[in-house]
Amino acid sequence: MNRALIVVDVQESFRARPEWSRMADPDIARSVDRLVALARDRGDLVVRVLHTEPGTGNVFDPERGHVRPLAELAPALPGEPVLTKTSHNCFTTTPLQRLLTEAGVTALTVCGIRTEQCVETTARIGSDLGYAITFVTDATTTDGVGGFSAAQVVERTEAVLRDRFARIATVAELEAERAAERTAGADGLAVSAG
């Protein structure tokens, strides 16, 4: 295993905010679960990271009870870390880098809530730390920011990350790549058995 899937902030805190109704994809759990299933199939590490703001009294304060994965997400399996962070990126305030280093991970797939914020920031920092990053845009969601629509925010994020910090991919593209890997593996077994 040299890959990990990082699921960023796919948590009930966001659903508890009025902005949830403006999210581009309120059914994000479906896309994320497809990525989780794909990662598990490949034997990749799956890491969930939740945003917290202790002592604030807002929806990210653990005392409010919303800092937990979205209810419809498939639960983490034993051995799949669930970390909490207090910064925008998943590295600065968590043991994520140590965990990845100990697991021999060199490539990250990132997805989650707030495409342009915590997910993008995690991708940028991860790239700077030397990880090969795959940013799965259709397994992220956001709402409009600063007069820009959610679609414009996503387009901007893809533009600034593409070929500089990350490879941009879709869930379907990654699933097709996995199917091709399986086919190639089966062909190799058939040749060696012949």
Automatic annotation (TrEMBL):
Keyword Heme: no
Organism of origin: Streptomyces odorifer
InterPro entries the record matches: Isochorismatase-like_dom, Isochorismatase-like_hydrls, Isochorismatase-like_sf
Keywords, comma-separated and alphabetical: Hydrolase
GO MF term list: hydrolase activity
Protein's name in the database: Isochorismatase family protein
Domain Isochorismatase-like: 4-170
